Amino acid sequence: MIKAALVQHQSRASAQATWEALARACRQAEAAGCRLVLLQELHNGDYFCQREDTACFDHAEPVPGPTTERLGALAAELRVVIVGSVFERRAAGVYHNTAVVLDADGRLAGVYRKMHIPDDPGFYEKFYFTPGDLGFEPIETAVGRLGVLVCWDQWFPEAARLMALAGAELLLYPTAIGWDPRDDAEEQARQLDAWMTVQRGHAIANGLPLLACNRVGFEPTPTAHHSAADTLAARSPEDGSEDGIHFWGNSFVCGPQGEILARAPADAEDLLIAEIDLQRSEQVRRIWPFLRDRRIDAYADLSKRWRD
To answer: Active-site positions?
Structure first.
C-alpha cells in the first residue's frame, strides 16, 4: 500500500510563485504520509502551446537541468518520489515535452519523452515538441515501476499496454487538458466523460492503478511575447473574452478495475491524496486475465496506419 498525492494547480504570475506553490504542496503531501507526488504537465508556468511563438523556446532547459536539480533536492529532503514535467531543450531545434522522475534519494531515476504530439486548435504542440524516442519503458523507483506517459498519450491504448507489458506497476499521466469556453455544457460534459472513461479503460485492460494529474483554471491565449499570466487580468471568460482554455481539473486516481479512488474538483486547486494497494493488480489479473488471452498471433495489422 502506498499513499500518493496529485498536485492540481493554476498558473501563477511568475515562475518563482509557481515553484513556491509546488514545493509547499509537496511538503504537505509528505506530511500527510505520501511517498509519491505527481505534478501536472508543464507545471513550471503557463500552457504556452495555445499559440505558435518562437520566443517560447527561450524557456526550454536541458535535462538534467534547473528543474530536475530543484525537484531532486526537494525529493531527497522529503524522501518522496516526485514525477515532474519539463520543456526540454535537447539541442538547437530539438525540443521535447519530457516527464522526469526524481527518486526518493534525489537521483534522476529516469525520463520519458512524450510520444504522441497533438496539433489541434489551442494545442499547437507539434510546433514546439519533437516526438519522443525513448519508447515506453517503466522507470524503477523506491515506490515501484512507474509507467509514466504524458497527456495526449492517455488516449492511446497501445501506450498503456506497452508500459504494462514492460512491467509497469502504476500508470501516471501528467496532463494539460480543458475546454474551449465557447463549448456548450453538453459538449463539455461529453469531453470530460470521454477523458475519464478512456483512462479508466486503460486501467481495466491492463489491471493497473492509474493516476492523472491535470491543470485547472482559465488561461487566456497569450499575445505575442506575453504569457497567459500577463494577460489574465485583462481577459477572462467572465468578461466575454473567451479566447483561451478552461483547464477542467478533475485529476483522479483509479484502481485496476477502473474504480475511482479519489477525484479533484473541476474548478479549484487541490492536493489530491489516495491510498493505492499495489497488490490488487495481482488478484485482479487472476480473475480478468486479459494479458493471458491476448491473440498476439493475430495483431500484426496494428502496426499499419490503416487497413485498406
So the answer is: 41, 114, 151
Q: Are 201 and 258 in contact (CB under 8 A)?
A: yes
Instruction: Report the alpha-carbon distance of residue 97 to residue 243 in Å, rounded.
Output: 24
Exposure string for 185-223, b = 16+ CB within 10 A, e = fewer: eeebeebbeebbeebbebbbbbbbbbbbbbbbbbbbbbe
- pLDDT per residue as tens digits for the range 17-62: 999 999 999 999 999 999 999 999 999 999 999 999 999 999 999 9
Residues 161-197: tens digit of each pLDDT:
999 999 999 999 999 999 998 899 999 999 999 999 9
CA separation, residue 151 to residues 24, 115, 164, 172 (Å): 24, 10, 17, 10
Matching CATH number, 2-291, of 3.60.110.10, 3.40.50.720, 1.10.3720.10, 3.80.10.10: 3.60.110.10
Q: How far is CA 52 from CA 55, 120, 125, in A?
A: 9, 12, 9
